Description:
By secondary structure, this protein is an alpha+beta fold. It is 22% helix and 22% strand. It has helices at residues 29-34, 105-120, 207-220, 231-251; strands at residues 12-14, 19-22, 25-28, 126-128, 138-141, 152-162, 166-172, 180-186, 188-194, 200-206.
Amino acid sequence: NTTFATAVTVLALCNATSFVWTTFGPLTSAQVRKRNVQRRFIGDLFGDSKGSPADELDEVFDEEPGRGGPYAPAGFDTKRMQFDIVRYPHPSLRQENEDIKTFDRRLRRLADNLFATLYATGDGIGLAAPQVGINLRVMVYNPNPRTRDEETVFVNPRIMSYGKEQDYKAEGCLSFPRIKGPVQRPTWVEVEAVDWDGNPFQRRIDGFEARLFLHEYDHLDGIVFTDRLGEASKKKVEPDLEFFIKDFQSTFPELEPAV
């Protein structure tokens, strides 16, 4: 688990000074209020709130061998669960991620479970499916976890275009506890994704949210944020990366680390 002080994606509420601090930079109280507007750009983003509270879906689905990839937890999209977040250099972080091809209640359950896992960290604001061993192109985020209004799901996202202007900000990752470093990213991005029924839509994302989107999107392409660090920054985190590799090898001797 990440710690508050060194969290990968930290959201610390500083009421005394009326701003929010994240590893992506400080936000003013006005920006926080602005971001409290509901975004329902792909419909009901967090599943069916009126559905059954049962732990398993009452619908029976055909077995699909290999669904979600070789590291996907059993029942990941049919049962309510909180996933274990995998740490670097787990191979699911580098595995190819498949598009969602079947649009049914399992997709909503997967999104529910991703959000449940995200909130359980206490300091996360974004999570991609490969970070929990599920190699599907699904990602979720909520830049303001104090409210559910900004819960956002992207299914099969693709980047259409991005701004020429770029900036550097410190980033971290739930799969890299205690590590952070400056990453250069575009200040806006135009994306295409699909909704719950597989219908495509496009959206432009700006500022902090663009950085958050791009960080999680990288995971869907098998890229981790340390890949984007400059040489000097990468050298600083090398001891931590070496520690993660040794720890992984001792914990999962049957798996090949994907560095």
